[in-house]
């Protein structure tokens, strides 16, 4: 069972920045393509960014140019740098495999509001 713990969320004003972290358990983290997902109130969970084991990244159009996904395999940690945040980015953010396992963590709340 993959264990993932998200952190780094908070309240930020529009235009601000946050850096989310995802701590993963296990010794084979480096072999997996990973993703960040988010779920806004009343909406389905959506995949917003991915990074492969070869560090190839992809983003949903709504965050391109603003978000950067990265990973530190030595630390078993996935990151999401979020810049130029908009109110529409408000959601609970989760990490998981790009092809997600049915084991979701608690997520971390990101609220963008003035």
Question: Please, could you describe this protein's structure?
Answer:
The chain is mainly beta and 114 residues long. The protein contains no helices and ten strands. It has strands at 4-7, 10-12, 18-24, 34-39, 46-51, 57-59, 67-72, 77-82, 91-97, 108-112. The strands form two sheets. The chain has a six-stranded mixed beta sheet with strand order 2-10-9-4-5-6, with no helix packed on it. A hairpin with a 6-residue loop joins β4 and β5 (46-51). It is globular. The model has no long low-confidence stretch (mean pLDDT 96).
Brief digest:
This protein is mostly beta strands. The chain has strands spanning 4-7, 10-12, 18-24, 34-39, 46-51, 57-59, 67-72, 77-82, 91-97, 108-112.
The termini sit apart by 39 Å
Unreliable segments of 5+ consecutive residues:
none
Strand order of the largest sheet: 2-10-9-4-5-6
Mean pLDDT: 96
**Shape, please?**
globular
State the total count of DSSP E strands.
10
Question: How would you sum up the major sheet?
Answer: 6 strands, mixed
């Amino acid at each position: 069972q993959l264990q993932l713990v998200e952190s780094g969320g908070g309240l930020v004003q529009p235009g601000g920045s946050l850096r989310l972290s995802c701590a993963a358990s296990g010794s084979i983290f480096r072999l997996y393509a990973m993703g960040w997902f988010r779920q806004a109130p009343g909406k389905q969970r959506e995949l917003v960014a991915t990074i492969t084991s070869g560090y190839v990244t992809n983003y949903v159009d709504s965050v391109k140019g603003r978000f950067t996904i990265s990973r530190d395999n030595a630390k078993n940690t996935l990151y999401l740098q979020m810049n130029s945040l908009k109110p529409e980015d408000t959601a609970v953010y989760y990490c998981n495999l790009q092809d997600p396992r049915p084991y979701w963590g608690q997520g971390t709340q990101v609220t963008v509001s003035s």
